[in-house]
Design brief:
Blueprint (H helix, E strand, L loop, with lengths): L11 E3 L9 E7 L2 H42 L8 H36 L1 E15 L4 E6 L6 E4 L1 H6 L5 E7 L5 E4 L1
Antiparallel strand pairs: 1-2, 2-3, 3-4, 3-6, 4-5, 6-7
Helix pairs in contact: 1-2
Length: 183
Amino acid sequence: MQNSSGYGHPPITGTPRSGSAAPLVRYNEPLNDTELEFLVSKERRERKQYFVIYRILLVAGLVLPFIASWYREYDDGPNAFSFLKFFVTTTILIGISTIAIWMSYKTYHRKMIKDIKEKTKTIETARITKKVFIPSKNACYFYTQSAVKMSIEVSQEYFHSLNEGDEVSIEYTTNAQLYLGYF
């Protein structure tokens, strides 16, 4: 069965959160070149951020035990500088940092890499539940029944052309669920 995009996946339907009778429609399509380029660029930036944060945590894992060890020396403690305490504390801090970075990478970053490999996006049709204009930001928002993207910022002309109860299609990456746009 092919959906309207001809991509070969049947639409996924479900009931909206607010309980209205109209079903939500979701289907997958291939990412276009611009979206894929955006995703690859975002993945590179975030990978660099992981390494920067990891380096900071490694330095902190070495410096903090060193400072604590010399602080005991300053207080004229009986066992002022203990190599054993220094290395045990350093190992524990670096181990915690490594596990935390690895878990974060595995949980969030791998989904983005999977989206790049699969080159798919999900398009979901959601009903507009509320329209909001914020004068201080000169921004227009639609609140939707989508479980992935509950509000979206839209152009003023689109804001005035649709009403509450109308449907809007939202695009996001399939695995990481990164918002790509609306139509």
